[in-house]
Amino acid sequence: MGAVPVPRVLATEAALALIRTLAAQHGPLMFHQSGGCCDGSAPMCYPAGDFVVGDHDRCLGRVGGVPFYISGPQFEVWQHTQLIVDVVPGRGGMFSLEGPTGSRFLTRSRVYTDEEWAVLADARVPCGPDAAGAG
Prior knowledge:
The protein is an alpha/beta fold. The protein has helices spanning 13-26, 72-78, 114-120, and strands at 9-11, 29-33, 43-47, 58-63, 66-70, 81-89, 103-111. The chain has 3 helices and 7 strands, in the order βαββββαββα. A hairpin with a 2-residue loop joins β4 (58-63) and β5. The longest helix is centred in the N-terminal third of the chain and has 14 residues, at 13-26. The radius of gyration is 14 Å and the shape is globular.
């Protein structure tokens, strides 16, 4: 099987710009989709390796060259939706790198079409540095 033809996660131009800014300040990054609690359900941006990815976490792909993870149980609930990382004004999650910037990452979503889902149901999701879908 090849790379995922329909990305499971995308980023808007505004999100990509903020990712570039944070990467210039902090070096390599990673995202983990928060499942609630303190920071709601925001995508959390960390320096690469600062968040320990667990055995049940799933990689959805890469945004702006940055790997994007979600917990296994949360993936089961959201697997039929494409996540779109965006940026809005406001204070980011208390543990997320964009907190002091005056902007915060936000996850939007859309349900896959039947045709997209038929392709995605068995697709492999690459998350290494050579993975497609860097945008």
